[in-house]
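Here is an idea for our session: we take a single protein and study its fold together. Which protein we use is up to you, so please pick one and set it down. Once you have written the record down, we can walk along the chain together:
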Amino acid sequence: MIADPLTERIGRDDIPNMVRSYERYLSSGLYDRRYPRPNRRTLGMLLRHLPVAGRFLDFGAGTGRYAEPLLRLTDAGGVAYDICPTACRIMTERMDGFVRDGRLAIRDDPLAPLSREFPAAFDLVFLAFGVLGHVSGRANRRDMLSVLRRTLKPDGVLIAGLPNRARRFRAELRAARRRVGGGELEEGDVLYRRGRSADAIPMFYHLFTPDEARSEFDAAGFRVEQVRAESVLAEEKVVSAPFVGWWDDLVCRLLPAACGFGFLVVARPRTTGEA
């Protein structure tokens, strides 16, 4: 039986439960203030890989900043999945019309039933900005990706935005070294807080290298086709204004993935017998 990776704990009790953390993050309105619109570059890649009337799964959909424009700009339909009840409530309110006309289903059930309810159902599965990084433990991430792989059509595509270890949380990475050495954390794990007040929200993140991302996707049965820079500036800045997003997208086309604030992985299910 596959656990719900976002609710799993590793090490000591001071490692946050990300469901509770994101409930606070979303309920406070801080998430929507930080990320008011989709990343232009990420949305463009999703649109290129989604057939006009295709089916998508937005895994870790948050408040729907990618699901909503995909529905508005195409004739596609899909499923928005998030384990946080607040996220699902906000999406239901914001995208009521798409839910009522049958183009969007919203799910907050445990992870495992997804592959039973939607076997080989989607042309595109995506985990936008950092969703996979909030899952603690390499084995948990592999199991999650394996479940998502089974929801893809044989020729479907999975796209994931991952935080780049070379560009993020340097002080937190240094602070985590002792716990990595003691086996409480894995290399690339960090603990941090979102917000500046006494009510700052505790967070867990796993930061990736491009090579590590390829290895984890390979272990979950995927063939990685591309790894590209997602943004040069921090995500909060990229989505602050359309011109900033346009400029950042242009610069990203000239730089390798390793230079990005985050990077995008494009992968397909490996076929039977494929090395």
Remarks:
- Residues 138-151 form the longest helix (14 residues).
- The domain at 5-269 is CATH 3.40.50.150 (Rossmann fold).
